[in-house]
Amino acid sequence: MILPYGAPAEVDAAIPIVTAHLAAGGLLAYPTETVYGLGSMASAPALAALARLKGRDPGKPFLLLVSSRRMAEDWNLVFTASARALSDAFWPGPLTLVLRGGEGRLPDELRGREGGIAVRHTSHAGIERLVGQSGQPLTSTSANRPGGPPAPGPARLVELFQDAVDDGHLLVLDGGVLGNVPPSTLIDCTESVPRMVREGAIPRGELRRAAGRLAP
After folding, report:
1. pLDDT at residue 114, as a whole number
2. Cα separation, 211 vs 132, whole angstroms
3. Which of 100, 122, 183, 192 could form a cystine bridge with 200, CB 3.0-4.6 A?
4. 94, 133, 101: which is closest to 117 by C-alpha?
5. What is the dihedral of CA 38, 42, 46, 50, to 10 degrees?
6. Confidence at residue 60, expressed as pLDDT on a 0 to 100 scale
7. C-alpha–C-alpha distance, residues 125 and 119, integer Å
8. Using CA atoms, how far apart are residues 167 and 178, in angstroms rounded to an integer?
9. Is residue 12 within a helix (H) or strand (E), and if so which, with residue range?
10. Cα–Cα distance between 61 and 152 in angstroms, integer?
């Protein structure tokens, strides 16, 4: 199924359908502020299904999208001083922070080798509303096959994942064709001193102008 997901009325109509689909273990393809993503509920079975769909090593973690820092903290994720300063300056937006915590609330399959979980407060208004209204973080990975470019829109998504769309396992939200936007900037905040993992949409200089010595 493909649902239009642009105008506010389209978002309002789609959210109950999407929420029920995810709660039943379904997977979602959706637009973000950077590229189209694939996602699921934050559960071990859903993460395994997402890895199978993408053809990805199940040991490689996915990130989480939240609708606020409060949501991340409610799921027991821990913000260092640097993570607080950076999220104050750049959330919502294309900044992903790797955080400690989440024990007892989030599956260990989300953890990277450093023990943290990658989290972003999305600035895509429709996805922010979906996450906020559901009260559940949404897992996220770029909508591509390993090594290939992300799908720029729904037509390419369906080409890549035709079987999953046809059998109803993958629901596609049509937010139009996205431009050539860099991926989010990724910063490891699991320790007191932050570490730049990937310089993306937000350059290092901008991080330092906003957060000073608390930036990597």
Report:
1. 82
2. 27
3. 183
4. 101
5. 30
6. 83
7. 17
8. 26
9. helix 8-23
10. 23
| Six-digit token string for 78 | 């821990």
Rounded to an integer, what distance in angstroms lies between the CA atom of residue 207 and that of residue 88?
11
Element spanning 186, H or E: strand 185-188
Report the phi/psi class of residue 55: left, alpha or beta, with left for phi > 0 and alpha for psi in -120 to 50: left
Q: Shortest CA distance to 96 belongs to which of 71, 62, 73?
A: 62
Domain 2-214 is found in CATH 3.90.870.10: yes
Domain ranges of the chain: 2-214
Can you state the percent helix, strand and coil of the chain, rounding each to 5? 35, 20, 40
Tokens of 64: 């989480």
| Best CA proximity match to 101, nearest among 126, 128, 123, 69 | 69
pLDDT band at 56 (very low <50, low <70, confident <90, very high): confident
Read off the pLDDT of each residue in 103-130 and give the average, rounded to a whole number. Answer: 93
| pLDDT value for 113 | 84
Length of the chain: 216
